[in-house]
Amino acid sequence: MIRAYKFLLRPTASQALALGEMLRDHCSLYNGALEHRRTAYHKAGVTIRYGEQSGELKAIRGEDPGGQGRWSFSSQQATLRRLDKAFAAFFRRIKAGQTPGYPRFKGRGHFDTVVFPRDGDGCRWDSTPHEPQTRVRLQGVGHVRVHQHRPVAGRVKTISLKREGKRWYVVLACDDVPAQPLAPTGALVGVDMGTTHFLTTSGGVHVANPSFLSTAAGQLAEAQRHLATFPKRTRQRTKAHRAAARKVAKLHAKIRRQRLDFHHKTARTLVRDHDVIAHERLNTAGMTRAPKPKPDPENDGAFLPNGAAAKAGLNRSILDAGWGQFLAILADKAESAGRLVIPVDARNTSRTCPPSAGGCGHISADNRLTQAKFQCTACGFTANADHVGATNVLNRAGLALCDVA
Description:
Elements: E1 3-10, H1 13-44, H2 50-55, H3 57-63, H4 73-95, E2 113-116, E3 123-125, E4 135-138, E5 142-147, E6 155-164, E7 167-175, E8 188-193, E9 197-201, E10 206-208, H5 212-215, H6 217-228, H7 239-273, E11 276-281, H8 284-287, E12 294-295, E13 303-304, H9 308-321, H10 323-337, E14 340-345, E15 373-375, E16 382-384, H11 385-404
Parallel strand pairs: 8-11, 11-14
Antiparallel strand pairs: 1-5, 1-7, 2-6, 3-4, 4-5, 6-7, 8-9, 9-10, 12-13, 15-16
């Protein structure tokens, strides 16, 4: 299996300064390569590709030994590949008839990752194995102390340096990670995702939605209002402006960490207690898409109400729950533990009267009276709507297993 490990770095003051300079130089290389491509195409109609820019990297490093020449050659190649992937995605979207999104220049606050494609080439994980303290060696920076909170399994393939606010992290991508199967339990469960309850199982267990974003909404709104008092576009931010921006970023980072921790703990509980876990196959991006405007046929240039305000609140709740991230974590943990996760079609799971629970199988939108109450219009079966949805999810998973068998 392939797994990623993320550890907090504990750099010294001089190392933190060097890490910041590394990011700035890689950002400058990215922007310079982007400008090179733009200028060549606009002035001469020439398309520059990764191979040509990588070939010029040696000369760039030779002309700037105190800047670009300090850092790993392979990490700079990875930065150029990053730009090449952005252009490849741009042309792919054009061919598909989608909104293209031309690659943008990166500001200092929007370039936070440097990738080292191979352990031992410009970087070295566990560079001081004879010492109890784990360190990672980065070319131009030195041996940086790592807060390693769990062992690393498998073979380290790539190493990424990442900045989040004032914190620095190292991310290891490892291959050949062995599975750690758990003892079988003989239990199967269906899961219905929601916003009132984060999830409901086919056994009738409700997991409350912590709503981290809603809980911190007051603090976040106050911090954002303070940030909005400063000019959006300025050449040099004041000390107070930078502090206001850091406050907003710090709140968002805390919410993100709380949500990630909750997802890991919830997924671990499901994987530990069940052999087979069925869930709805959800298209979160489509579910949170803003409704299209409705032109008024009687008034040219006017629009009819399209429910955008109500949809925005629902979208915020769905994104706050983070279904996509949770289901990805659940799949990874299940693979590592030797469990089976089955995604099923989500259509009408909360509108079908469940035969396995004594229902008749009738499907109707009128079956769901409210967000929480289900009552079949054909046979009168009554239950919690989320519980009904989870039960139908498990039924569909059983049918899928029968088809496979």
